[in-house]
Amino acid sequence: MTIYLNGAFMPIEEARISVLDRGFIFGDGVYEVIPVYSRRPFRLAEHLQRLQHSLDGIKLKNPHSEREWTAILSELIERNAQDGRNQDQYLYLHITRGVAKRDHAFPNPPVPPTVFLLSNPLTTPPPELLQSGIACITVADNRWLRCDIKAIALLPNVLLRQAAVEAGCAEAILIRDDAFLTEGAASNIFVVKNGKLLAPPKDNLMLPGITYDVILELAAANGIPYEVRRVTKAEVLGADELLLTSSTKEVLPITQLDGKPVGNGKPGAMFAKLHPLYQTFKREVMRK
């Protein structure tokens, strides 16, 4: 496996990062995850825009232009797709505030950021999972108030996802103030009620998902009723369908919540519409 670290491509075994890196000491950094299909990044411009939003949120200068990022990512993809392998990948992009003496305040003067990129094979959900759906639990959203920043300090999300795993579930659905839906521990969540798609608004309490945007674009383009607003806990618990979206999971039906079936306990009509629309959209985008 070839990775990219601070301007150089190298085998992952050769990568070295200082223990004084602020990402290691403080979790002072941001990241991005970009799916790659047939060696082409999906919605790259949107992912780089979200990266810029995260960097702005922590007051860290972007180390590269969009053109430079594109060249680096393309080279990493090609180096990990030799001999016809790994045509589909997902890229993990990680930027920290760099190496400095341990101090909560930003280094002054600033130090060079640490830039790390990793490629892994991308495996999309298998057909049997699309047919059965996944189980989730609801948990209290006890994270900080800047969830729109894709920060590397993910301990709250780790604990929330682990709570789901320990309950025998795939994901935790987060409820803020015992009142309304925000998102999943590592995903966005949609509620379906009476044929309408309900989506939480993009604000500081959730990550602005790239797949979230695609789903709403597809709904608008295909006459599927939808509404972006606060979605109550009661609406989550009483949903006809629940859908999970993320860059690596794409679109998945949630068929069990807190040990009870969602709707009739099977993937529903909204998933049956949106999943093929998403796959068609993906193929069309990758042909351009």
Describe it.
The protein has 288 residues and is of the alpha+beta class. The chain has 2 domains: 2-121, Aminotransferase class 4, branched-chain amino acid transferase, N-terminal domain (D-amino Acid Aminotransferase, Chain A, domain 1, 2-Layer Sandwich); 127-287, D-amino Acid Aminotransferase, Chain A, domain 2, CATH 3.20.10. The chain has helices at residues 22-26, 44-57, 66-79, 127-132, 155-166, 210-221, 233-237, 269-287; strands spanning 2-5, 8-11, 29-37, 40-41, 89-96, 114-121, 134-140, 171-176, 180-184, 188-193, 196-199, 226-228, 241-246, 250-257, 260-261. The strands form 2 sheets. Strands 7, 8, 9, 10, 11, 12, 13, 14 and 15 form a 9-stranded mixed sheet that branches. Strand 7 (134-140), helix 5 and strand 8 form a beta-alpha-beta unit. Helix 6 crosses helix 8 (269-287). The chain is globular, with a radius of gyration of 20 Å. The mean pLDDT is 97.
Structural class: alpha+beta
- Give the helix level as a range of percent: 25-40%
Query: Distance N terminus to C terminus?
Result: 28 Å
Q: SSE order in H/E notation?
A: EEHEEHHEEHEHEEEEHEHEEEH
How many strands in all? 15
Main sheet properties: 9 strands, mixed
- Specify the CATH homologous superfamily of the largest domain: D-amino Acid Aminotransferase, subunit A, domain 2
What is the residue-averaged pLDDT? 97
**Architecture of the largest domain in CATH?**
Alpha-Beta Barrel
Tally of DSSP helical segments: 8
Please supply descriptive tags for the structure shown above:
288 residues; 2 domains; D-amino Acid Aminotransferase, Chain A, domain 1; 6-stranded antiparallel beta sheet; 8 helices; alpha+beta; 9-stranded mixed beta sheet; D-amino Acid Aminotransferase, Chain A, domain 2
